[in-house]
Amino acid sequence: MAEVQFRFRNDEPVADPAVTVDSFGEQSNAAAVRLEPGDDARDLIPHLDRLQLIEVNFPVFGDGRGYSAARILREAGYAGELRAVGDVLVDQIAFLRRCGFDAFAPEVPLDPADAEAAFNRFAEVYQPTTDGRAAIWAKRHG
Predict the structure, then answer these.
(1) Is 1 inside a domain boundary?
(2) What's the rounded Cα separation, in Å, for the pair 6 and 4?
(3) Domain that holds residue 93
(4) CATH number of the domain encompassing residue 61
């Protein structure tokens, strides 16, 4: 896997290798977990306070279950690093960030200028999400 290309946290990356959700229960001292598309993010909620990293795998760009997993984890209070890994495309990263991802490890490295352009493409947003940006309707109807 490629190293993390984009980070939005000030702390250092988590060095521990991520374990699968299935083996997480057996390795009670693991600080990093990797969610696969079939895993239920809600299974991690009781353990969020001791996790430093949750990787969410996107094996193909069309599989959107990871967006839901990120939102579930952030709304449950997860404050650690949430990393999108796998088939992560530049067209997706702004939306991934809005769902709560703060680090990205795409299989194919992204051009930093393209990524920055993607993050800045839309000045206004329509849905409230975990990134704290106010939806445009909320600005209009304060």
Answers:
(1) no
(2) 6
(3) 6-140
(4) 3.40.50
Q: For residue 109, is it within any domain?
A: yes
Q: What is the pLDDT along the chain (142 residues), one digit of tens a residue?
A: 333 345 544 455 555 678 888 888 766 688 899 999 999 999 999 999 989 999 999 999 788 899 999 999 999 999 999 999 999 989 888 888 888 999 988 988 888 888 888 877 877 777 766 667 777 777 777 6
What is the rounded distance in angstroms from the CA atom of residue 22 to the CA atom of residue 84? 19
Q: What angle do CA 98, 127, 140 make, to 5 degrees?
A: 125
Task: Quote the pTM value.
Answer: 0.79
Domain count, the chain: 1
